[in-house]
Amino acid sequence: MAETMNRQQRLVVAVAVLASFVAFLDGSIVNVALPAIGRDLGGGLTTQQWTVDAYLITLGALILLAGSVSDAYGRILVLRIGLIGFAVASIAIAVAPDPVLLIVARAAQGAAGAFLVPSSLALITSTMRGPLQAQAIGVWTALTTAATIAGPVVGGLFVDYLSWRLAFLINVVPIALTLWLLTRLQTRDVRRPDASIDWLGAILCTLGLGGAVFALIEQPNLGWSSPAIWLPLVVGIALFAGFLWRQRTVKNPILPLELFRVRNFWTGNLATVFIYGALSLNGFVVGVYLQQGAGLTATLAGLASMPTTLLLIVLSSRAGVLAGRWGPRLFMTVGPLVMAAGALLLLTVAVEFDYWWQVLPSMLVFGLGLGITVAPLTAAILGSIEPARSGIASAVNNAVSRVAGLIVIAMLAAIVGGSLDLDGFHRAAIATAALLAAGGIASFFGIRNPPLGAGEETTAVTVDEP
Question: Which ranges carry the Major facilitator superfamily (MFS) profile domain (predicted)?
Fold first, then answer.
């Protein structure tokens, strides 16, 4: 008879799902809210870029640190701090009177979000083993994926009929419920007295990424010759180089560089850079252009990409099973190329806009390719590293995907030619297709299928949400 979860284990899953749901929901709401934020606070494309990238800078830089902090101070304590921080930042976003305070609050929200997903999964893996753990992670994946569907639609409804500010307050209710459920847990934090935290490494990484991204976003306004551009760029690159050097020498690095000696790990992460950079670019551009260029409401813009998400949910599990049987190389090659074809279909978008003939075919083809790609990509990367280090391998891949997204969004003005009009939208579609093709080519030449029979012992892995 299959083992079933007891009350406390179900409570653990509920806490993990709700804590992660908060971060995923916010990430999927923001794209449909960007035009309304721009109209209300001003700042044009630059404000929209920073609204996305301020969150991704701190999320991508600190998600590596989150595992160390969770181990050292305990998962429940870290979850509680992350939830409270996320709620306070969400309220600050909702009341922000100008772009500067909004961007600062988004950065704080990203920092809090970095501690939610890793800690929630660590709570599951530290309290359950074997089939129960796999079952719990499956429930976590299914329910948090629902946030990527609900977010744009719920956010669009709030933007259209209430206010974009209230859309960011949606998080407060599940956060309050999660904090209450944490008081009902009988599980207690177990702290490792020998755990050390590389705070300096986290600071170098955050400031390094921040300096480079600032230069890329503000360069169209000030020009490369301005000291306000080239100085942060040079300092940012130097700080990030210092971060990488420190990871080679520090006793307990937050980014173990030796992982990149494994072929499928470094190749898979290279493919991740291209694929997730393309996903971020596509999500941003489609969400904004359908409102500002095509004249759709925020709700309809949120509904527009739902076919892609539904295909991802339907196909991911099957693609993962087939990749386990045949190896991930075929799927990681074909999937991005299919997505590239879907991105190019957006070139049919014209001044006389028609969603059904110009956008829907792209969403369907793009979703087909995404469903083929995501699970095999995650399995190839995590499967290349021994199970004892799968947690840090997952964190590294998650950070790589976030950093890829923030760099591409930072370069948006250069990609679209300064403004997101129809010509800029077409340029973005071509750039998205080029990035995806690069991801497919990197996978074809770099990924190696494991020997037949090597996958008989499988471990549960989680799929990083696009």
Answer: 12-451
